[in-house]
Design goal:
Elements (H helix, E strand, L loop, with lengths): L7 E2 L11 H26 L3 H11 L3 E8 L2 E7 L5 E4 L7 E2 L1
Parallel strand pairs: 1-5
Antiparallel strand pairs: 2-3, 3-4
Length: 99
């Protein structure tokens, strides 16, 4: 898989810092203004493995009900952990942050 961008996926986003909305807002602001631009512009220079590593990690999770998904950015996969947590791997997503 070749990716033009990278995505952060938050499982159970509604629970992420749910009891501290100020910190959640600050975290998301830093993510949007600092982290995502670095990922979009420099990650390929510094991150070893990139999407291939993400796919390797995905495959190592021994997920249930793995299915192939097609996106406008290429092929990806989704599956579930034993506890029902959903896991998705794909080349990218347009927004950068997925809620």
């Amino acid at each position: 898989m070749k990716a033009d961008k990278y995505a952060f996926v938050f499982n159970n986003y509604n629970f992420f810092l749910a009891d501290d909305l100020v910190s959640k807002g600050l975290f998301l602001e830093i993510l949007k203004e600092e982290v995502l631009p670095w990922w979009e512009n420099d990650a390929k220079k510094y991150v070893v493995g990139g999407v291939a590593k993400a796919l390797e990690d995905f495959n190592s999770l021994n997920l249930e009900n793995v299915t192939e998904i097609n996106t406008s950015f290429g092929k990806g996969y989704r599956g579930a952990l034993d506890d029902g947590t959903k896991v998705v791997v794909r080349p990218t997503n347009k927004e950068g942050i997925q809620h």
